[in-house]
Automatic annotation (TrEMBL):
<keyword id="KW-0464">Manganese</keyword>
<feature type="domain" description="Nudix hydrolase">
    <location>
        <begin position="31"/>
        <end position="163"/>
    </location>
</feature>
<dbReference type="InterPro" id="IPR056375">
    <property type="entry name" value="Idi_bact"/>
</dbReference>
<dbReference type="InterPro" id="IPR015797">
    <property type="entry name" value="NUDIX_hydrolase-like_dom_sf"/>
</dbReference>
<dbReference type="GO" id="GO:0004452">
    <property type="term" value="F:isopentenyl-diphosphate delta-isomerase activity"/>
</dbReference>
<feature type="active site">
    <location>
        <position position="68"/>
    </location>
</feature>
<keyword id="KW-0479">Metal-binding</keyword>
<keyword id="KW-0460">Magnesium</keyword>
<comment type="similarity">
    <text>Belongs to the IPP isomerase type 1 family.</text>
</comment>
<dbReference type="Pfam" id="PF00293">
    <property type="entry name" value="NUDIX"/>
</dbReference>
<dbReference type="GO" id="GO:0050992">
    <property type="term" value="P:dimethylallyl diphosphate biosynthetic process"/>
</dbReference>
<dbReference type="GO" id="GO:0046872">
    <property type="term" value="F:metal ion binding"/>
</dbReference>
<dbReference type="InterPro" id="IPR000086">
    <property type="entry name" value="NUDIX_hydrolase_dom"/>
</dbReference>
<keyword id="KW-0963">Cytoplasm</keyword>
<keyword id="KW-0414">Isoprene biosynthesis</keyword>
<dbReference type="GO" id="GO:0009240">
    <property type="term" value="P:isopentenyl diphosphate biosynthetic process"/>
</dbReference>
<protein>
    <recommendedName>
        <fullName>Isopentenyl-diphosphate delta-isomerase</fullName>
        <ecNumber>5.3.3.2</ecNumber>
    </recommendedName>
</protein>
Length: 181
């Protein structure tokens, strides 16, 4: 299991900072904390998804959104999302805030995600090289196709990614930007 000892931001249900804690400990305790998810599209209206490295502290080997993570203490959420996009996927681009939501889910290894997840979108079309410590595979896929894949094989995708795709905010984004087909 690969875990860093970074301090992450604890929040209340209004997403106000209330403290911090070491990343693994926060997930062992199931404490509410701040997180982000990034969704990158290309000019062909395809979404970049990736398969998490097998030794991630949870959800290893599952397919998920372009990147995700936690802001460090004293780090703005958008700055953290941009940083992590570079660390995981090997590129950065302009990101736009879409919405935030709360979710909580427990994993078989006794860890719990209890997050207020800030979702960002962006567009990227150039070359990139992923970090193999974070990503074992990636692909560009149409939203309609990924929704069908999830319906047929939900256990292959992360909990939060499935929630994002079902959200009203994401559905409105897809409709407004014509990225479903």
């Amino acid at each position: 299991m690969s875990v860093d000892t970074t301090e992450i931001i604890l929040v209340n249900e209004s997403d106000e900072e209330v403290g911090s804690g070491e990343k693994l400990w926060v997930h062992q305790q199931g404490l509410l904390h701040r997180a982000f998810s990034v969704l990158i599209f290309n000019d062909d209206n395809e979404l970049l998804i990736h398969q998490r490295a097998l030794d991630k502290y949870h959800s290893g080997g599952l397919w998920t959104n372009t990147c995700c993570g936690h802001p460090n203490v004293n780090e703005a959420i958008k700055t953290a999302a941009e940083r992590r996009l570079g660390e995981e996927m090997g590129f950065t681009c302009d990101l736009d805030f879409l919405y935030k939501f709360h979710y909580k889910t427990a994993f078989e290894n006794q860890l719990t995600e209890n997050e207020i997840d800030h979702v960002f979108t962006g567009t990227y079309n150039d070359f990139f090289e992923v970090n193999p410590a974070e990503v074992i595979a990636y692909r560009w896929v149409r939203v309609a196709d990924i929704i069908e894949e999830i319906a047929n094989n939900p256990e292959s995708f992360t909990f939060w990614f499935k929630k994002i795709l079902k959200s009203q905010a994401f559905q409105a984004f897809v409709a407004e930007n014509h990225v479903l087909s």
